[in-house]
Structure to design on (528 residues):
């Protein structure tokens, strides 16, 4: 199953609604980069409110996709990380220090607009 | 052997108890004597002797429940466990000595009797120790729960800003609980900035710092910012001396400064109203 | 008293199945959302290790009830190449797969008890337990 990527002005919106398996995660990475290239998007919001756990593999895919997007000139904000997920990530020892985050989709978009200087 | 001892104790109950009380008093220190009142002590001693005689009467089911009740009573009286246990040992010796004195046993069977008395009273002292121990365990677990309830509330002071005051020593288990409260609170209050106030934390060592750093990272992940306030001079010194890196944090010495900073971060400030003439 | 459920790990989809099993058992035993996430994540790491390094193996979930305490134990067993230097893989930041290297030390932090047993050429046996608070 593919994760839908929506376009809103010069931003891309992604809402991950179900548990990510390895293939879906890698497919998403590819799809998102392609879409950034096609649309010249300057910002991406990835909402993961529905995700109840992240292991080191998914964290790596997410971290990679953020760095790759940055290389292509798009800033990424991750929104809706659940408390349980945040605690698990920190305990697991995964660092996402440079990643922009926001409480929810709305705040994520606000943050992105600020960053892009609109 | 049973019957001899039973009838002996029954016959000389008063003498034995008086001798016992004297010896226990002799052994106990001043503090103990002030805690244990004479009357209660005598009453309890008689009750105890009746109880162990019941043990020898082979009426075991009644004995067991009576023993439990007796142990609980001793614990409630608040006598120190060392006092009670050594009192039991003294009782063994008193009975033994009395038996010899009254010439109920011959010299050569002395050891045998002492061993018998010991075996007879051992389950009793075990039960009493057990009651003490389980009372302590219960107290400890209750206090643990009380401590958990005391742990770290997240207070939404103004819109977008919440404060978590930390008080007392932070161990690993408490740190986990604090982290959960903190993150659930940030999300439900929709906080943008969280101030962790460590004014009430007596010692900040590497472990505490590690937990605070983890909490701050997790706060960042859910989409808010974390500030560490209430850093006293001695805490600043230990943090630097231990080589703990808090450079990624915004830190302030007082909650007040932290609050001003947090308002600034959310594009607000406190203004004094002009006096109306 | 133990009740055990197992998943055989052969491909990536079995990792998902193992996670789901673990999450369900954790929920059933009454673990909170944070502990559920910890357990699910630990299972995911261990199952992925089996898939990546051993090719195949088993991941089992035990429901524990010892001395009035309830717990969940993850048992990950494989007959793969084994781990030559256990101390090294338990160091933070060590990884042979190009992942984030959070694997085993991370799992140890997520769970309450952690035990690893491995001999080169004979396989690996990892047990990690979480107790209900």
């Amino acid at each position: 199953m593919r994760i839908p990527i929506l376009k809103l002005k010069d931003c891309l919106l992604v809402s991950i609604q179900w548990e990510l398996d390895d293939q879906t995660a890698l497919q998403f990475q590819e799809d998102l980069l392609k879409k950034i290239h096609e649309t010249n998007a300057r910002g991406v919001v990835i909402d993961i409110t529905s995700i109840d756990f992240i292991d080191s593999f998914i964290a790596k895919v997410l971290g990679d996709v953020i760095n790759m997007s940055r290389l292509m000139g798009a800033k990424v904000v991750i929104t809706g990380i659940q408390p349980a997920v945040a605690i698990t990530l920190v305990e697991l020892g995964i660092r996402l220090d440079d990643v922009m985050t926001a409480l929810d989709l709305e705040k994520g978009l606000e943050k992105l607009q600020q960053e892009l200087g609109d | 052997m049973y019957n001899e001892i039973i009838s002996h104790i029954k016959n000389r109950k008063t003498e034995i108890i008086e001798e016992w009380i004297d010896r226990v008093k002799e052994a106990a220190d001043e503090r103990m004597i002030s805690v244990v009142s004479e009357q209660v002590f005598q009453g309890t001693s008689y009750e105890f002797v009746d109880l162990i005689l019941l043990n020898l009467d082979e009426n075991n089911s009644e004995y067991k429940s009576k023993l439990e009740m007796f142990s609980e009573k001793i614990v409630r009286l608040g006598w120190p466990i060392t006092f009670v246990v050594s009192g039991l040992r003294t009782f063994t010796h008193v009975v033994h000595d009395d038996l010899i004195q009254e010439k109920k046993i011959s010299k050569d069977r002395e050891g045998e009797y002492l061993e018998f008395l010991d075996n007879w009273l051992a389950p009793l002292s075990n039960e009493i120790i057990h009651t003490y121990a389980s009372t302590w365990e219960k107290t400890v677990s209750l206090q643990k729960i009380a401590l958990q309830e005391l742990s770290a509330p997240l207070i939404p002071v103004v819109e977008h800003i919440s404060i978590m005051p930390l008080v007392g020593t932070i161990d690993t288990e408490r740190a986990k609980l604090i982290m959960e409260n903190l993150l659930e609170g940030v999300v439900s209050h929709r906080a943008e900035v969280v101030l962790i106030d460590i004014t009430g934390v007596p010692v900040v060592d590497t472990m505490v710092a590690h937990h605070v750093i983890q909490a701050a990272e997790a706060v960042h992940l859910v989409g808010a910012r974390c500030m560490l306030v209430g850093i006293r001079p001695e805490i600043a010194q230990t943090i630097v001396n231990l080589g703990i890196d808090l450079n990624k944090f915004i830190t302030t010495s007082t909650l007040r400064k932290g609050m001003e900073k947090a308002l600034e971060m959310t594009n607000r400030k406190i203004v004094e109203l002009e006096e109306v003439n | 008293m133990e009740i055990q459920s197992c998943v055989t790990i052969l491909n990536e989809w079995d990792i998902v199945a193992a996670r789901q099993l673990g999450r369900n058992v954790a929920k059933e035993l009454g673990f909170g959302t944070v502990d559920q996430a910890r357990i699910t994540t630990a299972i995911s790491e261990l199952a992925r290790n089996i898939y990546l390094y051993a090719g195949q193996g088993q991941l089992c979930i035990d429901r524990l009830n010892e001395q009035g305490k309830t717990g969940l134990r993850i048992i990950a067993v494989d007959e793969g190449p084994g781990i030559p230097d256990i101390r090294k893989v338990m160091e933070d930041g060590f990884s042979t797969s190009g992942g984030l290297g959070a694997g085993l030390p991370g799992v140890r932090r997520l769970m309450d008890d952690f035990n690893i047993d491995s001999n080169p050429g004979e396989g690996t046996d990892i047990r990690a337990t979480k107790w209900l608070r």
